[in-house]
Amino acid sequence: MGFEQLAELRDRLRAEKQQVKADSAQQPKQPKRKPSPQAKPREQDPAVAAIWPLQKHFPLAFPVNPAPKVPLKEGIFKDAEQHLELLGLTREQLKLGISTWCRGARYWASMVEDAPRLDLNGQAAGTVTAAQALHAKQQASRHRSQERRNRAKAKAQAPAPAADAAAVQAAD
To answer: Which residue range is the domain that position 63 belongs to?
Structure first.
């Protein structure tokens, strides 16, 4: 192929590329992914929906993961109740959000003796007592053992592939 032919090919490819750009600029852009007709909007967990406003308005008391949770002031629900309108939550939603927040390994891990309890603004408002720390430790232990039982139960209910194959061979 000679230089003249290469130059002609280059010019033709440039012209085609410009034509494609012009055509795509005239057409409206389509979304990359079309939702399937069977797709339903994901339902949001009500507890999570109640926790988000708390994290937004009171980030020191309700830190976002991976920051560790902090022990909350006793009676924090009553303090938060005064901000229902700001949070955009009902009393029941607030109760669900706070109870869910205070139930779990991350929260129980924060409940160590003499740790400061924080109010909504992140100010110290008391400390965790030895009895409360012990209770949190027991809750965490109970939760871990329940998780182990659930995993063992699920594993026992799942059919073993080798046993199924043996049953099929025996039936033949």
So the answer is: 46-157
